[in-house]
Write a structure and sequence with these properties.
Immunoglobulin-like, six-stranded mixed beta sheet, 35 strands, globular, mainly beta, 3 domains
Amino acid sequence: MAAVIVMVSGCGGSMPRQPAAAMLSPTGTATTQALLREPRQLVSRGKTLHVGLVVEMRTVELGGQRVRALTYNGDYMPPTIRLRPGDRLDLTLVNKLPEYTNLHTHGWHVSPSGNSDNIYLHIMPGQTFHYSYQLPTDLAPGTYWYHSHGHPLSEGQVFAGLSGAIVIDGLDRYMPPSLRNITERLVALKDFQVKAGAIPTTNIDSNAPTTRTVNGQINPIMNIRPGETQLWRLANIGADIAYNVQLQGSRLTVVAQDANPVTRVWGDETLFMPPGSRFDVLVQGPPEGSTRLITTAYSTGPEGDSYPETTLATVVSSGQPMTPAALPATFASFDDLSKDPIAQRRTITFSQNDQTNEFYINGKQFDVNRIDVRAKLNTTEEWTVRNVADEQHTFHIHVNDFQLMSVNGKPYPFRGWQDTVQLPTRGEVVIRMRFLNYLGKYPLHCHILNHEDRGMMANVEVVR
């Protein structure tokens, strides 16, 4: 195997274990929680980053118990890969599993072919594969992630642990000067179940009781000063389960969605995050005391899942109060595709058979050798994406992000582009997409990976 150089940020390799913090429970008794830990970061130097990832089953500690999980480099919460637009990532993946795997850089606008973001590769047991990604100089800054995309094994491999975060730097250039050096936190949302001492990789029931984690921790403490502004990188990097994130009593101010800086800053008390979605948000410290970061109770429809309210983390606001910074109203410029001429209009329909547990796009199950959509380079298309099921689905497409135009006929305000959108039950969304820079084949699919693995995926080919 060729030598692999792993370059680590100046702020450290493995982050030191954070001490536990004592605090009071609602009943007034003392309880001990760990402070939120950041995964170690692998950061580019001189426009290049060399990374080695070993995929294997290891025993890890999750929530105070020893569990067998699938890991990158032995970690359930693997390293964060950090680069800048225009960088090159050379990544060596070593497969020590008894089944094939591969790697997808979710959200990247890079080539889908060869040894770049090619999800059709099968890296077999015992094999080593060398990926090389050349990032465009205009790649949007924000939060992305990486995970296994080996069909039809994606759900089991991601659910058991094969997912991590990617950060593309540059978001700070859109910030006002007072917000360019604020504290940043990765809030990576992963969930797991345990059967016979291991996270299951088959026969997964996403509606069964499931433990939610932040950066692989159960209800860690996140510290902030009253009035302090922090940047939180929220990312749902799990296999199947949606999160409806809320910092109780506070507003989450969005500056980027799916690693696309927004044209105008917007916010809400709750952000819905289907699998694969990300939000970069500004958070201002609440008054002194403890606040829960939760995922609210949520149902994905009569044929879907119902999730209970769960505490994700405890936000402790303490220390010398700060005067809250003025938050920006506008942010980045982005092309508004509503003005583009439309080369073609298509209808994409998601459906399912609950008796056979099969899932379809336009009435067909996935076939790796079939091209379902053939689009021309440098054109814009408008798609009506329909869901005829009594369960919500999560539309995602690789390589080229899209602009959401409407939901169930209601115009959607232009905020920028995204790569993931939730399809309402018995409803539809209209999106527009511009096919830029790259020829080749890549998929669109439901990012509820159980549905993808069971047929809800189709192939797009971009041609001249």
